[in-house]
Amino acid sequence: QVQLVESGGGSVESGGSLTLSCAASGDLVTRAWMAWFRQVPGNEREGLAAIDEVGRTTYADVVKGRFTISQANGKKTLYLQMSLLKPEDTATYYCAASPPRLGRLLLWANQFEYWGQGTPVTVSS
User: Fold this and answer.
1) What is the SS3 assignment for 84?
2) pLDDT tens profile 26-53
3) Quick one: which H or E segment has residue 27?
4) What percent of the chain has pLDDT over 90?
5) Which residues contact 42 (CB under 8 A, 6 or more apart)?
6) Residue 55: per-residue pLDDT
7) What three-state secondary structure class fits 112?
8) How far, CA to CA in Å, does 27 sit from each of 88, 95, 103?
9) Nearest Cα to 7, choosing from 28, 23, 31?
């Protein structure tokens, strides 16, 4: 089991930066696959970045070079550093986790079992 609580969302101007945090707890934390997703009402949840149990990362093309996923505090904190933000980055951002799996680390929502409550991000033009 993993419990996830996101924070750090807010409003920022286009071109600005924001860092989201996700506090993770539970017995899977040190070996879980972790990821960030976002969702706009009416759209499917979109995978942005993920990190596996040994620190390998993967990014969606839409955020590659602008967003960075990282962990700290013994993997109990997951970060998403976001820069060069655009109005189309406006969404609710979710932290997700799953037990480590065989195969590739993918940004599929159905690969992740545990979800936080989300934190909203608004980017104004």
Assistant:
1) coil
2) 999 999 999 999 999 999 999 999 999 9
3) none
4) 93
5) none
6) 94
7) coil
8) 36, 17, 22
9) 23
